[in-house]
Structures are given as C-alpha cells and as structure tokens.
Amino acid sequence: MTLSEILEAILAGDGAILGVALMDADGIPVAEVLGAGARRLLPDGDLSAAAVEFGRAGGELDKAASATRAGAVEETIVVMAAYSLVFARVRPGMTLVMALGPDGNVGKARYLIRGNLSGLREAL
Fold first, then answer.
1. Domain that holds residue 67
2. Which candidate, 15, 57, 101, 112, has a CA 20 to 30 Å from the CA of 76?
C-alpha cells in the first residue's frame, strides 16, 4: 500500500477523524488526507498548520524526556474544545498526526494509528 492509501484507510476507520498527515521533522506534510469536517473545524481547513504549531511544543517535550532519561516521546495527545490532535512517532524525524472532532474517541484513534504503524514504516 502507498502512504496515501494507508492514510485513507485510517481516515475511513472513524467518522470523527478530521484528517491524517505524515509530517517530516520540519513540519512539511509528506502525505495528507482530510475528511469532510476538516474545513469547518481546523484552522484554515488545514491539518498541517495546526500540526506545525503544536509540533513546536513537541520539541519541548522531547527535551524534557531526554533530561529525565525517559527515552523518546512516542505519542502525544492534545485535547481541546474544538478538536484533538494525536501525534505518533513513525520513525525519527517522521510523525503521524491525526485530528479528531470534538466527539472523537481518542482510544479508537490510537488503535487505528498503532494498527497502521508497521505499514507506514514499510511504505517509507
């Protein structure tokens, strides 16, 4: 499967998913798919813009994890009133970002991500 096909499969896994993107270390989307609600809920209808803003905080989390000798941050979840973001490290320098609507199930999102991580790694 291609990256886009895998992201499409994740998006199809739950109607509350607004979008899914694979981002490189600079915040540039390598592949991205958006659902119907993305334009209404995400800033400018764009997942990558939101991911970049919150990705900066991820850099601080990486520093804290390193300082506490906890290892790399593998997953980060940010829950807000309008939408939630789930960040999952695919490999160093490559992060999967999923946006969920306010009624989204974070547990199901994590399940869908984990079930597709090996396919994403193979496709890269």
1. 3-123
2. 15
pLDDT tens digits for 61-111?
888 888 999 888 899 999 999 899 999 999 988 999 999 999 999 999 999
Residue whose C-alpha is closest to residue 98's, from 19, 2, 32: 19
- Torsional sign, CA 87, 88, 89, 90: negative
The CA distance from 37 to 16, in Å, is: 8
Number of separate domains in the chain? 1
Please give the model's pTM, rounded to 2 decimal places: 0.89
Straight-line distance from the first to the last Cα atom of the chain, in angstroms, rounded to the nearest whole number: 11
Structure tokens given for 39: 């334009």
Q: What is the CA radius of gyration of the chain?
A: 14
- The full DSSP string for 64-91 is HHHHTT-----EEEEE-SS-EEEEEEEE
CATH number where 38 lies: 3.30.450.30
Torsion angles phi and psi, residue 36, rounded to 5: -65, -35
